[in-house]
Design goal:
about 35% helix, about 220 residues, two-stranded antiparallel sheet, alpha/beta
């Protein structure tokens, strides 16, 4: 499939994540950073099937020293867990939101969770960082808005902890492109997939801003 947009480091595809990941070679990606959608059309049974299918594909494309990082709410992670048992569980990070969602008959949801898993036993390249973090998701700039975008600092933390320059980072649910933006800044090769064209455009625009900043910095340095 032809990329929607590409740079020297990465390619963004606008389409279905599951179908496009199937086209990637085995053991080709160092980090899969999957900030899962909370639901898909078709209800709970369809969503569980989606979790299983994507988990199998993500494991297939990981290198032997690769990392899988997933973000979701606790209920969905419970359903995802059976399909991750052949990976090494390294960490859970609690991501505390400023607002609470109150489902009927349940305690209020005030957090999502980030699971960090790897193909083999290995350590994160990280200092002393606690496993509970306050964060505000959402991206807004120049009239553009994505309600579930993770902050850049979180993407940077994960990418720097799991990859080195020139490694490949895959974001199968790219949204507004935060992971792609950070990968581009850090010199990682990247692959982004996003199903909604309006978000593909937003991700493209954000990466283009990074490229302009790089060019301006180089020009200032050469003067």
């Amino acid at each position: 499939m032809k990329p929607y947009f590409e740079t020297q480091l990465g390619k963004l595809y606008c389409g279905d994540a599951l179908e496009l990941v199937k086209e990637l070679p085995n053991r080709s990606v160092k980090l899969v950073f999957a900030d899962y959608p909370f639901k898909v059309p078709g209800g709970r049974e369809k969503y569980i099937g989606f979790l299983k299918a994507t988990a199998e594909e993500f494991k297939r494309v990981l290198t032997e020293d690769g990392w899988l990082v997933v973000i979701n709410n606790p209920t969905n992670l419970f359903h995802l867990a059976p399909y991750l048992q052949d990976l090494e569980f390294r960490n859970e990070v609690v991501l505390v939101r400023p607002h609470v969602f109150y489902p009927p008959g349940m305690f209020g949801f005030k957090h999502n969770a980030m699971w960090i898993l790897s193909k083999k036993k290995q350590k994160l390249n990280i200092g002393k960082v606690a496993d509970v973090m306050e964060y505000q998701n959402g991206y807004r700039a120049e009239g553009a808005w994505h309600p579930e975008a993770i902050p850049e600092w979180l993407a940077r933390l994960v990418i720097e902890a799991t990859t080195e320059e020139d490694d490949i980072v895959l974001d199968p649910f790219a949204g507004s492109g935060t992971v792609l933006v950070v990968a581009e800044k850090l010199g990682r090769r990247w692959i982004g997939i996003e199903i909604k064209e309006e978000y593909c455009k937003l991700a493209k625009d954000r990466v283009l801003m990074v490229l302009r900043e790089k060019k301006n910095s180089l020009e200032r340095w050469l003067k």
